[in-house]
Design brief:
This protein is α+β, with helices and mostly antiparallel strands and about 425 residues long. Helices cover about 40% and strands about 10% of the residues. The longest helix is centred in the middle third of the chain and has 32 residues, at about 155-185. InterPro entries: Mopterin_OxRdtase_euk (IPR008335), OxRdtase_Mopterin-bd_dom (IPR000572), OxRdtase_Mopterin-bd_sf (IPR036374).
Amino acid sequence: MRDRPRLPVSPEFWRSPLRGPWFTSVLGLVLLVGVTVLFVTGLLSYAAYNPDLSPVNDTTPGKGILGFYLFPWPTGPVWLYRFTQGLHVTLGITLVPVLLAKLWSVVPRLFALPPARSLAHALERISLLLLVGGGLFEFTTGVLNVQLDYVFPGSFYPLHFYGAWVFFAAFVAHAVLKAPAAVRTVRRRRGVPEAGVREEDDLVATRPDAPTVSRRGALALVGGGSLLLFLTTVGQSLGGPFRRTALLAPHGGPDPAGGPNGFQINKTAAYAGIDPAETGRDAWRLVVTGRTGTVRLDRAQLLRMPLHSSSLPIACVEGWSTADQWWRGVRLRDLAALVGYDGDPPDLFVESLQRHGAFRHAALRANQVADGRSLLALYVNGEELSPDHGHPARIIVPAAPGVLNTKWVARLTFGDL
């Protein structure tokens, strides 16, 4: 028996009996559905941040035509962003074993010679390289950002946005070329070719090693890995007792204890550089600017205004969310009326006392300001906000990403942005 070739360009280098059209096709069809959902929910996340609708929130200003789909993000249902972003992050992590298994199953094709047998084959190889590189980039940056919390400060959003378009373009091209054959392959029983259909055999080992597990067993192993990741991630979005299972998710584990303010915190007052002297009753003032000028309000004056309550969650781009919390404060549209907007309120520019971290400033669209559930919150669950939850006042808006619910609010400017 000859020794195994040392170079991966030789077909005999690859000896696993698991590789083959059926195994690859099953994984490919799972990714066809999963990656499509990931791409759509990712685009929705960018729409929720209102890029291109407000330059304040636009983290990808050079996107051009790639922003064709953007629209004002709705305020209802209140769990909308919690659902779409929770689905995006949980599904992305769940698909990691499927992606790795799929890449492993087709790795011999990356070394096949000659590099291109025809123009069509060359296009297929280019799409495959972009697909593999783009897939690894998108999944790696996404998982790192989720687990390490802004591991790409100032650059993650454009990197992930443009990378997603490159990856999905290659994904669509590859799917158009391969999906029909994959469907036919999966439908065939026991690998028996249909009449007139040529079986792809470039993935089948020419000198396979003895099998240690069946292909169905290997799929079960991949599925088990995905199920494990799902169970240790999804609780961050479901909340309640399921949060105890979110061991691999940021802010996972049991709900924080500690009374009315005992729920998940993304960034603390210390991290944001909040000086307690600026937030005290005697020092803090809210500056509200609009059509008729500027109004300065202390906490006592805000408390004399009509107070309203909203039951709303906080949902973050990393996929975690809180349960609904009971917020109480002054409606944003009532604050707009103080500075000359008695009818439909305009857009709003919010500034925070925060010194460190992203989104020290944020923009809210007119539809968000007009919603009666959008508050400048002073209380949560019947108690004053804690410093880490934004004392003395924070924004809370239904269905908005958590970073737009600005904490430690110092100034509100109403008007076209």
